């Protein structure tokens, strides 16, 4: 029998993109089907009563797993083959021990944070955060006694440290959640520096977990676990799903932490359906091709925009100058500049709206990371609930437009941008 968890040939390690069509799935368990079938079932039959008892003992943590024992299939709120294969494949990109998938990025964020935070704790956060995350940590968690402590992305770690220490005061820090690069302005947080700082706020009995929302560059171009973070987290709706047709999320980390997250997932019921798992497996087969093509397109688009007289400023990682304090951070932790660009138009909201309304190929929609290019206006759309003074501080100006560059031909994208800029 072939070993479907094998990751090497004669000791030479295989790359994630080479394993996305096979890893974790044994066709012989499914009539030889080359692709995993969709296991559209809520519950699974046990071989015998003893097997059922053993599965429950493991699922509920009543005893340790035996050396060769695997958690059997019980019920699709706990596990399902499509989700298990997907989770195994997701671990490969980030070099994680384990993964948990969710029915949305927000379900991943909410379930993961609730696993670790407790009343009275401080939660360290970078800003700006995704709108849904921002609302959850500033309006929902505080009702449970969890205090948000925020710092701005783009600051060197020496300036972050006093802000965090003062904000935390004498509270226990149970977790930090950061987004880097930030949305929409592509500011960076030094993952290694922040992880060292946050871990230093723990003590012998308590180690805070550092969670990186890696939606923007990962899982291809940034691997937070390799820079000292404890968990990487995704809206799989974006690059991982990649076709703007599925909502999903994922969290990755070591077995112990992920075991705790999965226990809460079981009781909150935040697990996706098998069809979502199947769609994401299909997406993972082309992840590297898509993200690479989008990144190359974005470089052409950014080069075009930066020279345009009507564009005041372009926020794109590929344009960070070498003398910028963030440049070494970029070189250390980002494998590429990615495919998100924010451009600043003179003339505020009216100019931005004229530009967006004139686009013909690029669609006017929120979200990102799909095969099609999308443009939107952060100040009135994705970031409209950020306080106006915070918006200014974060660089979310009325003339700012964010573009998620897709897989179209870059010349065609530039033709569209050219005619839309003429309308400004
Ligand atoms: C979209 C997004 C989320 C939320 O994910 P959903 O799948 O929409 O729930 C979280 N973080 C970031 C950075 C995002 O872009």
Structure description:
- This protein is an alpha/beta fold.
- 37% of the residues lie in helices and 15% in strands.
- It has helices at residues 16-19, 49-59, 81-94, 105-116, 131-140, 157-168, 191-200, 255-268, 274-285, 287-306, 327-333, 348-358, 388-393, 410-422; strands at residues 8-9, 12-13, 98-102, 122-127, 147-152, 173-179, 209-213, 231-235, 249-253, 311-315, 340-345, 363-364, 374-376, 400-404.
- Strands 3-9-8-7-6-4-5 form a 7-stranded mixed β-sheet, with helices on both faces. Strands 10-11-14-13-12 form a 5-stranded mixed β-sheet. A two-stranded antiparallel sheet has the order 1-2.
- Helix 4 packs across helix 8 (255-268).
- The longest helix is centred in the C-terminal third of the chain and has 20 residues, at 287-306.
- It is globular and about 75 Å long.
- The chain binds pyridoxal-5'-phosphate.
- Residues 104-106, 130, 132-133, 179, 183, 213, 215, 235, 237-238, 247, 249 line the site of pyridoxal-5'-phosphate.
């Amino acid at each position: 029998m072939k070993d479907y968890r094998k990751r090497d040939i004669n000791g030479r390690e295989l790359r994630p993109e080479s394993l996305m069509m096979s890893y974790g799935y044994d066709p012989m368990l499914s009539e030889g089907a080359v692709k995993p079938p969709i296991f559209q079932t809520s519950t699974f039959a046990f071989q015998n009563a003893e097997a059922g008892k053993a599965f429950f003992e493991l699922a509920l943590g009543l005893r340790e797993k035996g050396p060769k024992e695997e958690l059997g299939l019980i019920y699709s709120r706990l596990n399902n083959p499509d989700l298990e294969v997907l989770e195994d494949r997701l671990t490969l990109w980030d070099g994680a021990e384990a993964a948990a998938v969710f029915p949305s990025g927000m379900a991943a964020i909410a379930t993961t944070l609730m696993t670790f935070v407790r009343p009275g704790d401080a939660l360290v956060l970078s800003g700006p955060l995704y709108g849904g995350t921002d609302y959850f940590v500033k309006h929902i968690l505080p009702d449970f006694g969890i205090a948000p402590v925020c710092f701005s992305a783009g600051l060197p770690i020496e300036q972050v440290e006093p802000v965090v220490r003062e904000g935390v005061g004498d509270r226990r820090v149970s977790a930090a959640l950061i987004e880097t690069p930030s949305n929409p302005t592509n500011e960076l947080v030094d993952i290694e520096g922040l992880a060292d700082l946050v871990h230093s706020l723990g003590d012998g009995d308590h180690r805070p977990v550092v969670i990186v929302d890696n939606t923007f560059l990962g899982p291809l171009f940034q691997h937070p676990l390799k820079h000292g973070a404890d968990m990487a987290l995704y809206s799989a709706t974006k690059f991982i799903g990649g076709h703007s047709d599925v909502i999903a999320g994922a969290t990755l980390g070591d077995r112990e932490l992920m075991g705790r997250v999965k226990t809460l997932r079981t009781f909150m019921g935040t697990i996706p359906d098998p069809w979502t798992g199947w769609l994401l497996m299909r997406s993972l087969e082309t992840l590297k091709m898509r993200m690479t093509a989008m990144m190359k397109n974005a470089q052409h688009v950014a080069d075009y925009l930066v020279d345009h007289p009507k564009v005041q400023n372009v926020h794109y990682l590929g344009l960070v100058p070498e003398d910028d304090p963030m440049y070494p951070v970029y070189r250390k932790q980002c494998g590429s500049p990615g495919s998100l660009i924010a451009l600043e138009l003179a003339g505020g909201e009216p100019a931005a709206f004229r530009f967006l309304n004139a686009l013909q190929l690029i669609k006017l929609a929120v979200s990102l990371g799909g095969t099609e290019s999308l443009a939107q206006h952060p100040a009135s759309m994705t970031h409209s609930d950020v306080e106006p003074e915070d918006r200014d501080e974060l660089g979310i100006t009325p003339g700012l437009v964010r573009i998620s560059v897709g897989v179209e031909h870059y010349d065609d994208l530039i033709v569209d941008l050219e005619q839309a800029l003429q309308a400004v």
